[in-house]
Structure formats: C-alpha cells, structure tokens
Specification:
The complex is a heterodimer of chains A (203) and B (293). Chain A has 203 residues and is mainly alpha-helical. Chain A contains nine helices and no strands. Chain B has 293 residues and is α+β, with helices and mostly antiparallel strands. In chain B, 56% of the residues lie in helices and 22% in strands. In chain B, the strands form two sheets. Chain B has a five-stranded mixed beta sheet with strand order 2-9-8-4-5, with no helix packed on it. In chain B, strands 1-3-7-6 form a four-stranded mixed beta sheet, with no helix packed on it. In chain B, a hairpin with a 2-residue loop joins strand 6 and strand 7. Chain B is rod-shaped. The termini of chain B are far apart. Classes of the chains: A mainly alpha (203), B alpha+beta (293). At the A-B interface, helix 1, helix 2, helix 4, helix 6 and helix 7 of A face helix 1, helix 3 and helix 4 of B.
Chain lengths: 203, 293
C-alpha cells in the first residue's frame, strides 16, 4: 500500500482547480473550498485536542489564513491544498497550546480534571449507554466465541490484527469479514436508536 | 490513500485508536479532510470504540459490585455470632497488620544493624592488624637504624685501621730503608748512687727513628741477658730477653735499639740481668732523653 502524503489524482485535480480559481478571485470557489474541507477540518481540530469552541475558532482562522494566501500569491503546489490546510490547522493548534502554556504557569486541578475526565451531559450519557448496549447486543449476536474474542481484543485490548489472527488461528479475510459485519450491524443498530431518539424528540 | 487500502488495513479504526504510524496518519488526514465517507466511518469507529470501552468498564464495575454483593450476602447468611467472629477477624487483621509490618521492619533493621556491627568489627580487626604491622615496622626501622649506626662505626673503625695500617706500613717502609743521623749512646754500668745529671744524654729521636744503645758489660760469665727499661718513676717501659753479649772477652757489650716513640724526654734506667751460667748481680745503666733537637 502507498502511505505517502501525495493526494489521490482526482482529489489533487479538484484541489488544484480550487486553488487556481481562488487565486483568480472567484468567490464561489472560496465557498466550495470551505464547504469541501469544513467538516474534515473541524474533525481534525477536535482530534488534535481542541475543545468545541476552540475548534470553531481555529477552524475559521485556518480558512482565513489559507484563503488570504490563495488570494495573494497562490500555492507553489496547488494540488497539495489539502496538505496546506492540514498543516495550517496543526500549526495554529500548536501555537494555541504554547499560548495556553505561557498564560498558565500554575496548575488548575479542577480544570484539568474537567479536561481529563469530562463528565458527559445527560444526552451524551444516554448515547454512551446506548453505544455500550449496542456493543453488548452485537457481541451477543456473534456466531462463535472466537469472533467475540476477536472483537474484544481488537476494540478493547487494541491488539493488532496480526497477533489476533495468529492467536485465534484466523485468516486475514475472516478477520476483515467479521469486523466489516460487526461495523455494519453496529451502524444499523445505532441508526435505529437515533431514529427512536428523533421520534421521541419530535413527539 | 484510496478506500481499498483504508478498508484492507483498517486505517480508520487504527487512526481512532492512535495506532497509525505518523506518515500513514498524515496521509489519511489529508485524505479525510475532503472525504465525507471516511468522516462517517471515523464517527462510526469512534462510536464503536466508545461503546466497547464503556461496556468493558461497566462489566468490570459490575463484576466488582457483584463481588461486594456476594460478600455482603455471605455475611448476611451467617449467624450473629459468626458475623461477630468475621468482624473480629477483620478488625484483628486491620490491627495486627500494621504491627506485624512494624515488627518485620524492626527485624529488618536488626539484621541491618547486626550486619553493620559485623562490618565494623571486621574493620576494627583490620585496623588492629594494621597497628600491629605499624609497630613491627617501627621496630624494623629501629633495628635498621641500629644496623646503620653499627655499619657506620664499623666503617669508621675500618678507616681508622686502614689509616693505622698505612701509618704502620709507612713506618715499616721507613725502617727498611737505610737511616742516617741515628743517635748512638754508649752506657757504662752505674755503680753506687750516681746522679742523673751525670748520665749520658741524647735528643729524642723522631718517632719513626731509632736510638742505639751499647751497654758496656766488661767481662761476663752469662751466655745471655734480659733487660728492663724503666722511666724516672720506676714504670717499666720495655722488657727484652735473649740479649747476647758481643765483643772481646773482657770488653763485652749488649747492643740494642729503641724506637723513638718509646723514648719521651726524661730520665731512664736500664737494668740487665744474666740468664744461665754463674749468677751475677744486675747491672744498672742510666741515660737522659732531651727534647728533640
């Protein structure tokens, strides 16, 4: 498999087109850019540890910087627009962490406790319990004990695929199949729950 | 990064777990920024993982609670006396454990103390042995110093002896060579109380030189004589035997030489006495030695 940072050809073509249009002063291209990358960028920022509020702020700041750059002088490699967005977001997050570290020299235990172990809200708690319930149902539906072990070792113990297959005497294809089916079933049950939630909120 | 790879390598799940290598994570991040399908997959994977972790946590908590409940249930099934005994056991354990721990620690300290003492004793023994050795060393040094002193004395004595030998050899060598200006004194027998002032005189010869004396006997019937030299205080200076008379029958004499070192300035008396033959009275000869010229 190729793991280099080079974008997919189709994605590279779209990104290059967007960069060129924005550099040419096309306002709709700027909207397209935001629409195309907004969700992923927000997810990345949350993934990097930003709180929802901070993620929103950095999300906007990232787009501001990238758009200004595209308007002013464009990119040396327009196809690498995704990489430029990602790098800008990461740099902003790193700068934010440094700023916070400079501001706070004393330990705020209460705030730290909040960050490390945020207590879920009422809705989140329900969702978490439902997710756990779905997992139990899913495990209960597994046809064999070996498949149950496979799921627990992969998702709970976070063991790698090779060691699980070796220990349980499984082939790679079987492992993939079990995981795929489990994911599909989980998705199905979760969507069912979300529908119920939506209905109860509607009523 | 394409979706086939993402699916085959379980990239989404591994990314959520934080198990992707940095390069692969970077590649996947650039991909999902603009990929709604992967973002859906990511949301689902996070949800699944949360569900599994929460379920596992709940199971662990439930298991712990079940064990606690089982204990309570077991206790409740016991009679009051057994409950009291169980409580007493727990209390005893709580009370005894710190004490036992303290005792164990005390024992450990005792063992450490004993080991330290043993090490200290060993150290002292070594120190004593060291002091003993130092005393022996001091004794050896004294003996060495004494030997050195003896050696120095010996060397000094040897030097003196060598010096004396050289001196004697010099004297001997001087004796072996012909000597001139040797004083010669003819002495006649002193009869009655002769005055020393009338005695023959000679100047003290050098220490390495000699003085010859010729004692005039006249006639003699003794084949040999002994002679005794005394100073003015009557101390015996020299005694000799086997002196043979020489000369004509009625003008016999005894000839002898005395070293200069023997003759300090002063008055001397030389007495001769015949040995063997007819007994004859001793003869007395006197002379005076004057200071060297």
């Amino acid at each position: 498999m190729s793991t280099e940072a080079a974008p997919d050809p189709a994605e590279a073509e779209i990104a290059a087109d967007l960069a060129r249009r924005i550099a040419a002063g096309n306002a709709s291209a700027e909207e397209e850019l935001v629409q195309r990358y907004s969700r992923g960028l927000l997810y990345l920022l949350r993934r990097l540890g930003a709180s929802p509020d901070l993620a929103d702020d950095l999300h906007q700041e990232t787009f501001r910087i990238v758009l200004e750059r595209l308007r002013r002088k464009g990119l040396d490699d327009p196809a690498g627009l995704g990489g430029f967005l990602r790098g800008t977001a990461r740099n902003l997050m790193t700068a934010e962490r440094r700023k916070t570290a400079r501001r706070r020299t004393d330990g705020d235990d209460a705030a730290l406790e909040q960050v490390v172990n945020p207590s879920p809200g009422q809705l989140s708690s329900v969702l978490l319990d439902e997710e756990a319930g779905i997992v139990r149902k899913l495990i209960g539906e597994m046809p064999t004990d070996r498949d149950r072990q496979l799921l627990l070792r992969f998702y709970v113990a976070e063991e790698d695929k090779e060691s699980i297959c070796s220990d349980l005497g499984l082939e790679s294809l079987h492992f993939n199949r079990v995981l795929f089916r489990a994911r599909q079933r989980f998705k199905e049950l979760l969507e069912r729950f979300e529908k119920r939630q939506a209905l109860s909120r509607g009523s | 990064m394409d979706h086939t790879t993402i699916e085959e390598r379980h990239v989404v799940d591994r990314y959520v777990m934080g198990a992707l290598p940095p390069e692969e994570a970077e590649s996947f991040e650039e991909h999902y920024l603009s990929c709604p399908q992967c973002l859906d997959r990511l949301a689902l994977a996070e949800s699944m993982q949360r569900g599994f972790k929460r379920a596992a946590g709940q199971d662990v908590a439930r298991l712990a609670a079940t064990r606690q409940l089982a204990l309570v249930a077991w206790l409740s099934r016991l009679s009051r006396s057994r409950q009291a005994a169980a409580l007493l056991l727990v209390l005893l354990a709580v009370a005894i454990l710190p004490g036992a721990l303290a005792l164990w620690q005390l024992g450990e300290r005792d063992r450490e103390l004993a080991a330290t003492r043993r090490a200290l004793d060993h150290e002292r023994e070594q120190s004593a042995a060291g002091a003993h050795t130092a005393a022996e060393l001091e004794e050896l040094r004294s003996a060495l110093d004494a030997s050195r002193r003896d050696l120095a004395q010996e060397q000094q004595a040897r030097a003196q002896a060598a010096e004396q030998l050289a001196h004697t050899a010099g004297q001997l060598a001087q004796v072996r060579v012909p000597q001139v200006n040797v004083p010669l004194l003819y002495l006649d027998v002193v009869r009655g109380g002769g005055s020393p002032d009338d005695a023959p005189r000679l100047h003290q010869p050098p220490a390495a030189s000699w003085a010859f004396l010729s004692l005039q006997l006249g006639s003699s019937s003794a084949p040999s004589y002994r002679a005794i030299l005394r100073d003015a205080e009557g101390r015996e200076i020299w005694r000799g035997t086997g002196l043979l008379p020489s000369g004509e029958i009625d003008a016999l004499s005894l000839n002898l030489s005395l070293p200069g070192s023997l003759l300090a300035p002063g008055d001397y008396t030389l007495i001769t006495e015949g040995v063997g033959g007819q007994k004859a009275p001793p003869r007395r000869f006197t002379f005076r030695v004057l200071p060297p010229r």
